[in-house]
Amino acid sequence: MITKHIKADDAAFLQEAADIIASGGTVIFPTETVYGLGANALDKNAVAKIFEAKGRPADNPLIVHIADVSELDSVAKDVPEEAYELFRRYSPGPLTVVLKRDDNIPAEISAGLDTVAVRIPSHPIANALIKLSSCPIAAPSANVSGKPSPTCYAHVKDEMDGRVDMIIDGGESDIGLESTVVSLAGEEPILLRPGAITLRQLEDVLGRVALSHSIFAKYDGTAASPGMKYRHYAPKAKVVLVRGYDAEVRSFIKSKIRLKGDCGVLCFDGEEDFFCEAVTRPYGTPSEPRTLAHNLFDALRYFDSTPVSVIYARVADGDGIEMAVLNRLIKAAGFTVIEV
Ligand code: TXA
Ligand code: MG
């Protein structure tokens, strides 16, 4: 397959991209969270191409993207009032709500579940693409299954070339982590994946929201979100997450650096000098957790271009977007967390 690469500021491109979607093809497009790999959500043959392009297991369901809350009833049914309220407050934006699936939506999208995950992206290219295609767009993150999600064109340029019909270069994703996923399809609201819309923001609308245990713990066979059971966000090197007081974490990591250049440290800004024998990648400071979120996946991908075989990772504590960063790092580390 030959992939056409275009820039988001190319005037004629968007209609062409929409025509590809409407006729059953695949397009990688920017969103405010991460890049998505989209196809017509009403066409199960097009949806099958997404799974193939990513090498994604068929039992991991996809998110359906719509342009406006007025389209919600065409993809979901028995929509509770709380869902409208959530979308009114936090969309367009980084929020996905799991609801009962409308019969319009092929079962393959949801891996056979009777639910569907719905999101209204705020990125102008994503929004315009949905409108011009005249259909909802199914789109997972545009990475090969298991890799960190792409947050800029450079991440998809080579990895996905030849796997999709078109790739739109839309610069850097603003947020850098995938959307918050909350389920309203069960007895009680459950947070399935933390993101930029925080637990507190959800609770402002929903009251108490339960946390899926698969957010921070290994999948035990009962996760409500099937995607949670797969190894995720993983660079080639082994990732080890180290938590504790700053000074102790630093000296623990320092004590692990033996072979020069074999060890990577995903550190905070200004810490590079502590780990001078290692390959360091600062990704922000704990006082600005949005920056940590924005830089995380690019930093993990950076280590793939270095010879390191292990990456020690620093992480910030907090109940805002820090929770999402911690969740992605725990998955990247395959649950290897050292408390010092
Ligand atoms: O920010 C995002 O959400 C990005 C952009 C492209 O919109 N998309 C994204 O999609 O991250 P993906 O496929 O990489 O992650 C979707 C997550 C998975 O963990 C999946 O298991 C869960 O949402 N999910 C999808 N449909 C579901 C459903 N019906 N029930 C429960 N979980 C669902
Ligand atoms: Mg993904």
What fraction strand?
A: 15-25%
Distance N to C terminus? 50 Å
* Shape, per Cα inertia axes: globular
| Percent range of helical residues | 25-40%
Low-confidence stretches: none
Order of helices and strands: EHEEHEEHEEHEHEEEHEEHEEHEHE
Bound ligand species: threonylcarbamoyladenylate, magnesium ion
Find the structural class using helix and strand composition: alpha/beta
User: Would you count the extended β strands for me?
Assistant: 17
* Continuous helix count: 9
What's the Cα radius of gyration? 20 Å
Biggest sheet descriptor? 12 strands, mixed
Q: Average pLDDT, to the nearest integer?
A: 94
Characterization of the model:
It is a single chain. The chain has 340 residues and is an alpha/beta fold. It is 27% helix and 20% strand. The chain is built from nine helices and 17 strands. The protein has helices at residues 13-22, 44-54, 81-90, 124-133, 153-157, 199-206, 246-256, 289-303, 322-332, and strands at residues 4-7, 27-29, 36-40, 63-65, 76-77, 95-101, 115-119, 137-138, 166-169, 180-183, 190-193, 210-211, 238-243, 263-267, 279-282, 310-313, 337-339. The strands form two sheets. Strands 1, 2, 3, 4, 5, 6, 7, 8, 9, 10, 11 and 12 form a twelve-stranded mixed β-sheet that branches. Strand 11, helix 6 and strand 12 form a beta-alpha-beta unit. The longest helix is centred in the last third of the chain and has 15 residues, at 289-303. The chain is globular. It binds threonylcarbamoyladenylate (TXA) and magnesium ion. Residues 140-141, 149 line the site of magnesium ion (MG).
